[in-house]
Every structure is written in C-alpha cells, then in structure tokens.
Write a structure and sequence with these properties.
Helices cover about 40% and strands about 25% of the residues. It is built from 11 helices and 28 strands. The chain has helices at about 5-25, 30-50, 155-160, 160-165, 175-180, 260-265, 410, 415-425, 430-485, 495-535, 540-595; strands at about 55-60, 60-65, 70-75, 85-90, 90-95, 100, 110-115, 120-130, 145-150, 190-200, 205-210, 230-235, 240-245, 255-260, 270-275, 280-285, 290-295, 300, 300-305, 310-315, 320-325, 330, 340-345, 360-365, 375-380, 385-400, 490, 495. The strands form 4 sheets. Strands 1, 2, 3, 5, 6, 8, 13, 14, 24 and 26 form a 10-stranded antiparallel beta sheet that branches. It has a 9-stranded antiparallel beta sheet with strand order 18-17-16-15-23-22-21-20-19. Strands 4-7-25-9-10-11-12 form a 7-stranded antiparallel beta sheet, with no helix packed on it. Helix 1 (about 5-25) runs antiparallel to helix 2 (about 30-50), helix 2 packs parallel to helix 9 (about 430-485) and helix 10 (about 495-535) runs antiparallel to helix 11 (about 540-595). Mean pLDDT is about 80; it is low at about 1-40 and about 50-55.
Length: about 600
C-alpha cells in the first residue's frame, strides 16, 4: 500500500534535519545544529500540512523543499493545482502532459502562475519536449516561432484580459494581443524580469535577456546579443530537454539546459537498481534489440522511449515508467511506496554530473529585485512553419529555511501569520530554553491545525449525511413522478386504467405480505405460550405462574393488536380502492363534459 503523505514527509524531514545538523556541527557553530534542524522541521511541516511529500531537495549544497503551488508532474487537473495557473490561447492541460502550443501554424500559447514565489533563494526546473514540421520547416525568414520562460516581479496573470483579446471584430488572436498591448510573445514589450527564449530559426538557440522595464523590446531583441541578450546554439528540440534556472539570495540568476539523447545513452548500458534509492542490489542491462536482462538472467521483457526524458520498461510482468535526471541517475515514477527506487549508471551513485548541464546565461548579483516573483510560459508556433511544445514536469524548490516560499493561506488560513513568525524567529533560538519554547510553539500550531482539520472533517461528514437524505427524498419524488408518467398515455392523452390497476395490486400484495408475516409471528408466540403452560402446571412456583399469565396476557394483547392492524390494513385498502374509483369516476365525467363541449 502507498505510504501516507504525512508519514513520508516526516521521514524525509527527519533526514533533512539530520543533514542540516551535521553541516552546522562541522562548522563548529554553537547551537547551529538545533537551529537549522528546527528551521527545517518547520519548513517541512508546511508542505506536509498540504498532504504532499515535503521531500528535501539539494541545490548548491543546500537543502530545500518543493513548492506545491508552483510544481506539477505530467499535467494539471481540476482537483490538483490547475487553479494556481492561468492557461489561455493554445495552452491546455492534456491527460499526460501540458501542451503549450499545438502543431499548427499561427497559434499562441499562454501559461502563467497566479501566485507569487515569496523567496529569493529558489530554483525552477522544468522538462519540455518539442518538435517542428521537419521537411516542411521554413527555409527563409520570418523565423518567428519561439518558446519562452518568464520570471518577473509583475503578475501578468492578474493583468491579462482574455475577453478583450477575443472580442476584436476580426476575431484574430494577433489583433487581440495588439489591442491589449501584449505584442512581445504574449507579453508586454516593456516587461520587467527575465525572458529565456528557445527559438527554432536557421539554427536552434537558447537565449536570455533581462529587462528592467525602462526599454521597449521587440521580438528580435530576445535573441540578439547586440541588445544585451546572452545566446547559445543548442539543439533544444528533443523528446525531453531539462531547463534549470537558479536565483540566489544576492539576486544573481543562472540558467542551464540539459539535452540527453536517451536512446544513444541507454543502448548497451548497465544500470544498478536501488530499491531504497541508495544501494544497488540488482543490475539491469538494456539490449539493442529492445529487451532487458535482469542480473545474469536471460534477456526478457522490453524497453521503449517516452516523451519528457522518460522510458518505459516491461520486466518480470511489471511495467515501470523511468524519468532520467541526468546521464547517471533515473527515478522510477510509478512506484507505489516510499522511497522511490532509482537506476544508477554502472550501479554507483556518483552525484550530479555538472557536465550534463550547459550554462546558457549568468546574471550578476543584484539583478533580481527584492520582492515577489511570478513565472510563466508563452509560445508562438510560427507564421510559415510550426513548432509543437509540451511540458511534462515543473518543480520549484525553496532553499530559504526562514520563509515558506509561497502563499499557503488555502491550508493554514488564520494560522499563516503565526507559522511565518516561527520561521522568521529562527535566528533567535540560540539556547536550549528558547529552542524548547519554539518546539512547544510548533507543537501548539500543529495541534491547532489538526483540531481545525478534525472539525472540517466532522462538518464534511454532516454535510454528506444531509446530502444522502436529500438524495433519498429526490429518489422518492422521482419514483412518484416516474410512476405517474408511466401511467399516462401521451398517445391517447389519458391515464391507462391497467397501469393504475397494476399499482393497486402491488399495494395489495405488500399489505397481504405484511399481514402474513404478522400472523406468523403471532402464531409462534401463541404456540410458545401454550407449550409453556402445558409443561409448567403445578411444577411452577406462584412467581413463575404469574410470569406465565403475564406472557399469556401480552400474547393476547399482541394478538388483539395484530387483529386491529389487520382490520386497519383491510380498511386502508378499501379506502384506497374507493379513492381510485372516485377519481376514475370524476375523470370520466370530465372527459364526457369535454366531449359534449367539443373540446376533444
């Protein structure tokens, strides 16, 4: 069975605290171990309250946690985090991926976050697959197809007016974007922040441009080094290109891209299968004929490529989906327990290979402003040819243990301010007394949150019970209306007597059946009373005789009550028959009246 998210979160957070404490003790800082451990405990508790695993992430030697409102796997759904994003134009969440733009010329894509990232120490990683129309690709200008990642202090989702875009008389999306001023790849020409552009012109390039909002940019500026953009030729249109953008507390920004040809890398290679995510206990080799060999056994099963830097493996009557996180490590995605197993190249965990990542741009400290950050994606397929771009994964990780990293008011509600106070006061926990006080405060916050969730659960149960009662009432009413509809003939425009007769017979059958059950029970009681009287006689004491007489009297009372009930049943049946007959007579008189008046 799948481990509960809260349990998983607790295990991962415990390991994170252990690592954080170890780092601080090595530095020799007094109280640093407990301080970092406490901060990580609070930080891990926040995402755990949302019911998601708060798995620690590593970045530049720092532990962090996943921001659930700015992350997703494969796609988004209405009951997941789709409400945190604004999708417009050709961008739409599909069953297995998020489609930024479809493979059709002259189509736009727009996908922006509604909530801000509230930390200055974070990392955004996403995986995209892309392709163009191959031989039909334009050989000459305009090369106007592109895909872009935006990171801005401004919320474009809050300013975006889709109704104004679609309401232009020409019904042309490009004209609508011009009307609302979003002429730069579905963004403002004087945007503020980072634009990381992936273009498919004469060559495939990845570029980055930072704009402070003072200059008005055009499409060519996004990839032009003369306009201040940093650009690199890179074949980013693959089945799974990974992009990583790192923002550090000093305001520096760094962007890297990893393109891995999974097929070339996997054919004939040997990988270790680490079920615990650490130690390889089995070895798997992937044959060129598409089969898989487990340890020293014969080749069996199959392996095949999937989009999004993924691979499917069928082995030992099991199917696994494996996602590559580099040239030496892959994660089994569809495992139903924690920790997730991993594949290690050559059976050894050699850590992150920095050579897998190609640095595209670096922006100096002080570039990224203090405050909130919004992220978004946009694209244009092209006017003469087209590109298709799909996103398969997005992960945003916060490395600042003093802030939550995003708005958690949907979970914490009124407690949000108190949780933030605990995080912000992390530096004050210098001695054991203050640390014990902080742990007690954290315990109280958790208890309050659990109590609120319990009350919400009780209220939900109460609402479900009321809903069930309403559904029962609705079912009864529908049965009544259905019976009336069945009894009415729309061809003859009158009620069918045979149907009414059938309902009356059904009611009579119910009464007769109930009377038979009652008579049977009364007969058993009478027989038991007679047997008791016969067997007792003089052998019974006066007290026992009184009890027998009392039982006999109760039996007689039950018999009388049953007889009365039978009489009432018969009387009710007669009344029902009389009522139906009366209604039929009235209905017949009314029909004759209408016939005389020539209404029918």
């Amino acid at each position: 069975a799948k481990a509960p998210s809260s349990t998983v979160s607790g295990q991962r957070c415990t390991s994170a605290m252990a690592r954080g404490g170890h780092v601080q003790r090595a530095a020799g800082g007094r109280g640093g171990a407990s301080t970092t451990a406490l901060a990580l405990l609070v930080a891990c508790a926040l995402p755990a309250l949302r019911g998601v695993a708060a798995a620690p992430r590593k970045g530049a030697g720092k532990a962090g946690w996943r921001l659930s409102h700015h992350s997703f796997e494969r796609t988004l759904s209405y009951d997941d985090t789709s409400g945190d994003w604004l999708a417009s134009a050709g961008s739409i969440p599909l069953r297995d991926r998020l489609q930024i733009v479809p493979p059709v010329p002259d189509r736009y894509g727009f996908f922006w976050s509604k909530k801000p990232v509230t930390t200055r120490d974070f990392e955004v990683t996403f995986t995209v697959s892309a392709s163009d129309n191959g031989p039909g690709k334009a050989k000459s200008a305009p090369f106007d197809n592109a895909f872009a990642f935006w990171l801005s202090p401004d919320s474009l989702a809050a300013q975006y007016n889709e109704q104004a875009v679609v309401s232009v008389p020409s019904k042309d999306w490009d004209e609508g974007l011009k009307k609302v001023g979003l002429t730069l790849l579905s963004n403002k020409p004087n945007f503020r922040g980072l634009a990381m552009t992936f273009s498919d012109a004469a060559t495939q390039t990845v570029s980055a441009l930072w704009n402070d909002g003072a200059k008005t940019r055009v499409f060519g500026d996004l990839t032009s080094t003369a306009s201040g953009a940093q650009s690199k030729e890179l074949k980013w249109m693959t089945a799974g290109t990974q992009v990583k953008v790192r923002v550090t507390p000093d305001g520096a920004v760094k962007g890297s891209v990893m393109t891995l040809d999974v097929y070339k890398h996997i054919v004939g290679s040997l990988w270790g299968f680490a079920e615990d995510g650490v130690t390889s206990k089995n070895m798997i080799s992937f044959q060129a004929d598409g089969q898989v060999a487990w340890d020293d056994g014969p080749a069996q099963g199959s392996w095949y490529l999937l989009k999004g830097n993924k691979m499917g493996v069928n082995i030992n009557n099991q199917t696994y989906v494996i996602r590559f996180e580099g040239s030496n490590r892959a994660v089994v995605e569809n495992w139903q327990a924690e920790p997730q197993p991993v594949l290690l190249y050559g059976g050894q965990d050699t850590g992150v290979h920095e050579e897998d990542w190609q640095v595209v741009f670096t922006l100096p400290p002080g570039t990224f402003p203090v405050g909130e950050a919004y992220m978004g994606f946009s694209a244009y397929t092209g006017s003469k040819s087209y590109i298709e771009v799909n996103m398969h994964r997005l992960e945003t990780v916060n490395f600042d243990a003093k802030v939550a990293g995003e708005d958690d008011s949907d979970v914490l509600e009124a407690q949000g301010v108190e949780w933030l106070e605990v995080l912000e006061n992390e530096k004050k926990y210098l001695d054991q007394a203050s640390q014990a006080e902080a742990v007690l405060r954290l315990k109280q916050l958790l208890s309050t949150h659990v109590e609120r969730c319990d009350k919400d659960g009780d209220k939900l149960k109460e609402n479900l019970i009321k809903m069930e009662e309403r559904l029962d009432t609705l079912g009864s009413d529908m049965s009544t209306h259905l019976a009336a509809v069945k009894a009415y003939s729309f061809e003859s425009q009158q009620f069918e007597p045979e149907v009414l007769k059938g309902h009356i017979i059904g009611i009579k059958a119910i009464f007769v059946k109930s009377k038979g059950i009652h008579d049977e029970k009364v007969g058993r009681v009478q027989k038991a009373a007679k047997d008791l009287k016969t067997k007792g006689g003089t052998q019974l004491t006066e007290s026992s005789k009184r009890k027998v007489i009392s039982v006999q009297e109760q039996s007689k009372a039950v018999e009388d009550f049953a007889a009365a009930g039978s009489s009432q049943t018969n009387m009710l049946l007669l009344i029902v028959c009389a009522a139906v007959a009366g209604l039929g007579f009235l209905f017949l008189n009314r029909m004759r009246y209408y016939e005389k008046k020539h209404y029918i």
